[in-house]
From TrEMBL:
It comes from Desulfitobacterium hafniense (Desulfitobacterium frappieri). Gene3D superfamilies: Periplasmic binding protein-like II. This is ABC-type nitrate/sulfonate/bicarbonate transport systems, periplasmic components. Keywords: Signal. Residues 63-268 form the SsuA/THI5-like domain.
Amino acid sequence: MKRNRLSLLLVLLLAAALVLTGCSGGGNATPANTTPTDNTPQTGENSDLIPAVVGYWGGTCESPIFVAYEKGFFKEAGLDVKLLKITGDVAVLMANDELDAFELTPDKFKPMEQGLELMIIDSLHKGCIQGAAAKESGIQSVADLEGKKVAAAIGGIAQIQIASEMVKLGKDPKKVTWLSYPNAQMEQALDQGEVDAFATYDPFPEMAVQNGKIKFYSNTFDPGLKDTLCCFIGMNKRTLDANPEIGKRMSQAFTKACEYLEEKPDEAAQMVMDKGYIAGDAALNAQLIKDYTWIAGDKKTVDDSFREIWHQIARAGALEKAPADLDTYIDGLYVQMVSFMGEH
């Protein structure tokens, strides 16, 4: 019965995560100086350009969005993109036709299962979620979390992955006290002794590690996690149904952006810092960009990652009812949630 209550709680809070989480965290976790000085595209320059709104929260791993915009890759692909700083519920933005695409994290998988009209159209990268612990906590890995207080988005992918890894190690994630804080306040809560550890999107955990904290979890480096996509390109299903060509052009632009990030990580980091898109400093973000695997246009990686993430969700106890055949259930979700556009 306790497990059932935990599962229901996770499901409900996953849906709530639409408002509170993204690749950098929610609207309440907006770092200072993350509003670009100029993010309004020139419209009407070319009648062949298709208008589209691409949203972002302000995380390091959203660098493909900023690179594609600033380097002109969206326009080269035939898109007239306007960037939108997301501070609220993406479901409302999409329903009002105010948002066409954004970097989709596994936090959205449960809401998509429950009917959110959002589609995965391509791969983007591996890595970007990590965890930091106080030195005095005794935490070295997820195996040490029983009896500890951990800050994470409740029902978010960091909590799901940590719970999944604990189960694999024979540990009980229900013995962790999970607490919710805005991303930008997690390290402060750690310093004040309110929590023993926290886990969220970069750059916040890496900033804490640079300040002397212990890295205890990383889907950038940890075996069993590092080979699974952290982020995908997500598109409003209504936009995609109305004009599938937008999805193909998005994939083309993001592919060029990922290639640029692989080839010129230092230049990319400096550019997105100069434009005020993300927190931290250029050196920190350059190192994070180098740590990630940028991999747009890879259908096999999308397929494998999609299935692995659903196994993590199931292992963590976040499915309302465990299906008799989980793999068959995931196959059905794939048809519902994925429309791969990366073949160009």
